[in-house]
Here is the input.
Amino acid sequence: MSSRTPSRGAVLAADQVESILKAAEGAGEQIKADAKREADTLIADAVRDAERQSETIRERAATASEDDRRRAAERVQAAQVAADQVMAEARAVHSELSHFGDALKAQAERILRDVRASHERMTAELTVASGSSGTTVPRPARPPSRGAGARPRGERSAGRGFDGVEVPEWVDP
Here is the structure.
């Protein structure tokens, strides 16, 4: 027996082993393909989820930005209304103070006219009382107008009949 021929059992066993190996390789390829498909599906799902979450976050950010802009615009509008109210009140105060100043000026002019008229009457009465019908009592010089030589505010004028009376700072001499 020079050459050995395999026995029929050995050939059948070898064929079975080969067929098992092919089936195992096929099953391995199938498992590999199924795993790749599942991985691709999981990756696609993860990408879709990430995109949805990203879109949701963008929408929330846009909504938050819109809310912030709306609140800022409301605050600016409220500040503008408050500023307008303050300006209206300032104009009203200015108008009232202007009217008050005009009334004080008119009152001061009336007082000055009354004092001048009283001075002229007193001077005339003194002239009559002194019996010097031809001689007149000299008039004191008028105080200088505001400007060069005017007395500072609050300073009392000597010899004008108002000794001891302080002129308030806000009154022009």
